Amino acid sequence: MAADPEKELFLKEFGQGYGYPNAPKNIDEIRATEFKRLNDVVYLDHGGATLYSELQMEDIFKDLNSTLYGNPHSQSSCSLMTNDIVGEARRQARRYLQLSLFALLYRTVLSFFNASPGEYKCIFTSGATAALKLVGETFPWSSQSTYMYTMENHNSVLGIREYALSKGAAAVAVDIEDAADLDRRHGGKSDVKIIPHTVQRRGEDGCRTKEQTSLVIHTIYLHFRQNATFRSEIQPRPESAKLLKKTYFSGGTVAASIADVDFYKRRDGIEEHFEDGTLSFMSIASLHHGFRILNALTMSAISSNEMGPTVSFNLKRPDGSWFGHREVEKLASLSNIRFTGCFCNPGACAKHLGLSHSDLLSNIEAGHVCWDDRDILHGKPTGAVRVSFGYMSTFEDARKFLKFIESSFVSLPAQATHLDLLRATPFHPVAEGYVLGFNSMQLSIPDYFFLLDVESPLSSTGLLHDREWLLKSLSGEILTQKKVPEMGFITTLVDLKLGLLIVESPRCKEKLQIELKSGQSIAGREVMEIYSQRYEVQGYCNEVDIWFSNAVGRSCTLVRSYASQNHMCAQSRSIRMCRDVDTRLNFVNEAQFLLISEESIADLNNRLRSKKHNGPNNRPPEVNPVRFRPNLVVSGGKPYAEDGWRSVRIGERNFTSMGGCNRCQMINTTFTAGTVQRSNEPLATLASYRRLKVLSLVM
Hints:
By secondary structure, this protein is of the alpha+beta class. Helices cover 27% and strands 23% of the residues. It has a 7-stranded mixed sheet. A 4-stranded mixed sheet has the order 2-3-4-7. Strand 30, helix 18 and strand 31 form a beta-alpha-beta unit. Helix 3 (54-66) crosses helix 10. InterPro entries: MoCF_Sase_C, MOCOS_middle, PyrdxlP-dep_Trfase, PyrdxlP-dep_Trfase_major, PyrdxlP-dep_Trfase_small, Pyrv_Knase-like_insert_dom_sf. Residues 608-628 are annotated as: Disordered. Pfam families: MOSC, MOSC_N.
């Protein structure tokens, strides 16, 4: 194997604790034999869901194929055996009479968390959120209760607040800060300062009220011992379970009940009291194999990193503006690097991104919701990149990630080229805007969606009938080409003279003609909410829905937008602008129009031709303006000149630039010969030299 100077240098400094030196296998052997499916993929989203090893799955399959596990609530021999084992483990936790799977499991789980089996109980839930919900819904909240939680907490913890406030209890968020003059790693103790926020309450009418924090809680200092390890040294109190008051009972939690009389008797065991229905005993049986792997690696080796396995960050451009976390995530996926571009911790986001309450509410009003593409609003990030490592992560994973950051985002001093200067130097817009005339620059309207000409009618929502329809599943989910690429094979034509929308698909024998005057609409109008925006929509007859269901290969319905009451607020580079209700939107992400120039596309194609490609015959992909799905295509200027336009005039119409539209991975998808083809181009090439995006406009 060729020498790797970078890794040798890393091992020289950190090799003593790297790669589980005392385990049966080192990290390189584990990765090569138990995670072969990763291949060239760098997986850095273990905070969201870590990976199972192939050896673990082999052991689980062998176990399930050789052992007959039965429902412990049934009366068959295998069920009675399971029931006896579980019951014995619950009733006599200090002693396990049999080395059965369930007895071994309970002992393993409790010892893993440094809990004595004689003092603590193990209640199985579907996950951490279900466990938190169980506590929230069974705690006896009252006006004398106070729910305290840290600001930097998951939404699943914040959700408990709803139980508290609905019962008249108080809720207060607290910040936790380490004392600056003490070092946890070297000192004997570390002071932790708890700073409470405003106390929250709800009145009898359900309205929110606030109280002065000083009347309820004072600043608190806590001391933690120096050698706190992964295993918690702050042990829970089992008698706390008696405080939780459960209302619902089910099979497994009830000892007896009478159907027509208000009578039931619960089982006595704490676990049986909270575990409704049949345990997921097949999943529970699999836990043993996972713990066996962790024990083989030793928890001390896994938890030796004092900083933890998670890094959250944002990236800035040289001019001080931010790269959006979704943009970073999309570009990373082109390099086979997987991580999350956001996370459900609103308190941490607000605190570390400097977002005030008004900022958060303004973002919501602008349509921002969790997991969407609105990663920069009003010049500030709405989230952050989160990279999290797992026990199978390697030096090579970290190095590939850092090289991706360096090659895609780090600006290094170098001899500037013309294109570098074009990218780095801001354009100076013409005061009265940019005029598109037919003598200097040419304007065209692509025919990939609606076959219209330059004199196409305009409406208050943009081009007449543009993005006026959408498909949704029977469950209400909005269908997009990202989720349903078969939509890309549908072609459309608006015939204004005949008053028809004509659609075709290779999956349907006949064309479908839809009257623009709503002749085929049958359902009454209803209000539909999409990404915090409200639309008045109307559906169509069964014939129309069947045609589109056949075209996309799944059941769906077609709806049309008739009125949008959306108040449009958006960030326009350095200024924040709001449009009134006269500027309305149909089913669009950001703006009424997208504009691109032929010269910009030509420059991109030149760059694509200069790269080495592994496609058919090693030919570079050829990109045309349609790939970017613009409404307006201009020609006659310089590449990327449109980046600097603040306004555009076409004839007697004035248009205001809303800045760049968020770049979408759909530009890497082509639809040819009835097949969907995906690649990493042209987005990968764009990412190598360009950060500005397709220009969006409003009237």
